[in-house]
Structures are given as structure tokens and as C-alpha cells.
Amino acid sequence: MALRNTRVVLLMAAVVALAGCDSIGNPFPSLSGPSSSTYAGSQPPRLGSTYFEPSGVSPGSPTGTYVGQKVGSFREELTQLQNAIRDQNTQLQTVRNKTIQDSQAYHENVAGMNARLQVGTTPGNPILMNRWEQAQAQLNTINDDIILMNQLAAQISTNSAMANYLLDSVRASFSLAGAVDEDHRQLRVLEDETQQTVVLIERLLNELSQDVARQQQYVSNEKQNLNTLSLAIKNGQLYGTSFANRPILGGPQMAGMPYGTGYGAATLSPGFAGGQPLVMIRFDRGSVDYETALHEAVNNALIRMPGAGFQVVAVGPAVNAVGQPSSNTAQARLYAERVVRSLQGMGVNPNKVFLAATTSPAVQYPEVHVFVQ
Q: Pick from 3, 20, 95, 182: most CB atoms within 10 A?
């Protein structure tokens, strides 16, 4: 009902948006509500599945020489090191299983909220708000799993340094005097097994580092998605995933636009000075529900123009009904700042959003126009 009450603003904006985009050769779909293509959220990344089991240490016989004693000492150190790797491998599998379970619980919760929003619900539904808070706590738990992975990686790094030191020591023992042939044979076996352990630890570290990097990016994306989901719950309609998850939004930074006094090149992007807006919002009442239509319009724009930025222009009346300067000009700027915050809450890169202001004798109420650039 709220969206229907603002049809004069948003539906007219849709027609104007289409005409404006046609004029630059990039037609956008009409603002007809969320499309099914925006429903899918990002899935948890696949974790590594390798089970890192050391091959073991071959037994040896004492030779009675000094080098033989060193071989025995090296063999004990390698055995302790491999036992530590086995323990850390067990910890890794435990953390992986926990992370998978935590991610599944989180996504089941989010999927339930998305399904309810897809069919529509009351704005600010308290049940969904409670589930959103639960999802935020679940995401924090997944972040705690990443901390456990980092702590484990630090322990494995220490063992990696020890393994490389042990390998250097074994190789240096070949040059010691007083060795017999059996000493060198056992040293060669020990060198091979130590080298295999070094390689195993490096593979373990690499796979764990990849798991950590993917999980960190995943949590970062989901934080943005939760921000967008909170807007959807507030309005009772599904938006989709955050625009921050689009890799193309991390493009070159551009300078923000200053406030101005007209539609000249000093305040609007030269390519859109005098052009038609993608979205036009008229704030002719205390509460205007614009975020659903804004999200869909921006989503369609980014599909057509992946590197697009957005210029938000506050348009205030030049004079009021009695011919005096209107206070609605300042109010229009406040509404424009609200629209900017909405865009940022939807995940649009702040460096891709530019703010400007103007006045127009053709408007009676404060308006905000959003241009694609």
C-alpha cells in the first residue's frame, strides 16, 4: 500500500528513467519490483578437503659413531614434528567441519528470511528482525572460525620453520668426519623423509591460507548482504544481495561533486547535464517508500553498465507559494543525503556515488533525482 501511495512519484520516475536511458542508447527494464535474478545469495566457499598425514619415520640401527648418534637425535625430532603435524591436521579437519555446519545454519536462516520477503510481509516484521539478529550472531561465529584457522596457521608456520631447520641439519651432517657407510645410508633415508615432511607442511599451509582468504571474503560479502537484508526487512520486500558483492564496483576512485546552484556542468556530470534521471523521488509527504524501486533501478543499471556511478541531485523549489525563497531547498539536500545513505546501505561503493544540489521553479516539493554516469 505504501508503494501504491507513491505511484505518482515512482511510476512517473520509471517512465522518465526509461526515456532518459533510451536517449543514451542504454535502455533499462522498467521498475516492476524485484526480479527473480536478485534472489540468490552468495554461497559459502568450498573448503579444502586434503587430509595431511605424514608418511612416518623409518627405524634405524645404532652404529656407535658420533654421526650415528646425530642420526638418532634427528630421527626423534622428526618423529615429534610429524606427531605435531598429525595433531594439527586433526584440528584442521575439526575446524573445517565446524565452519561448514556454522555456514549451513547461517544460510538456512537467511534463506528462510528471503523466502518470507519474496512473497511480501509487513514492514519491520519483528520475527524477521529477530532472525536477522540471529543471522548476525551466526556470521560472527563463522568469523570466530576464521580466527581459529589463523591461530592454527601460526602454529603450523612454526613447525614449518623447524622442519626446514631440521632438513638443513641433516644435510650438513654428511660433511661430518668419522662416519661409516651405514651412517650415510640412514642420513639419506632421513633426508628424504624430512624433505617429504617439509613439502607436506607447505601444502598444508597453502591450503589453509586459501581457506582463510576465501572465508574472509565470504564473511565480508555476507556483512554487506545483511545490511541490504535489513533494509528489505524494514520495508517488508526482498531486495537481493548487496551491490558490494559485484567485483566491478571496486573501480577507480573519482572526486565527489560539490553542491551547486543549477544543472550546469559545474554541478552535474557533463554527460548528463540536462539529461533525464534514472529515478526521480518526490518527497511530498512525511514518509516516502522509495528504497525497493531504487534498488531495482540501480540493479538494472549495473547489469547494463557494470562500471556505472550514480549522481544524486537534490532539487528544491526556487521560491515558495508566496514568492519567497523556499526552505524546502535545504530539506531537499537532507533527502538527497538520505538517498545516498540508502545506496551505501545497499552496498554501492561510496566512491561511485556523487552528490549535487540545485533549485528549479518547476518543482513544488523537494525532489531527489538519481542519474547514471
A: 20
Instruction: For residue 238, give the 3-state DSSP assignment.
Output: coil
Measured CA to CA, the distance from residue 362 to residue 267 in angstroms comes to 18
Exposure of 246 in the CB half-sphere (CA atoms within 13 A): 23
For the sheet with 310-317, list strands across it.
Answer: 279-282, 367-372, 310-317, 353-360
Q: Which residue has the cell 564473511?
A: 219
Q: What b-and-e string marks burial along 266-296, b requiring 16 or more CB atoms within 10 Å of the CB?
A: ebbbeebeebbbbbbbbbeeeebbbbbbbbb
The pLDDT score that the predictor gives to residue 253 is 32
The secondary structure of 157-198 as a DSSP string is: HHHHHHHHHHHHHHHHGGG-SS--HHHHHHHHHHHHHHHHHH
Helix (H), strand (E) counts: the chain: 7, 4
Amino acid present at 354: F
Cell numbers representing residue 19 in the block: 526515456
Give residue 12's pLDDT: 38
Q: Is the pLDDT of residue 271 over 50?
A: no
Instruction: Determine the pLDDT at residue 34.
Output: 38
Q: In the predicted model, what is the mean pLDDT of the chain? A: 78
Beta bridge partner(s), residue 313:
356, 369
Question: What amino acid occupies position 47?
Answer: L
Pairing of strands 279-282, 367-372: antiparallel
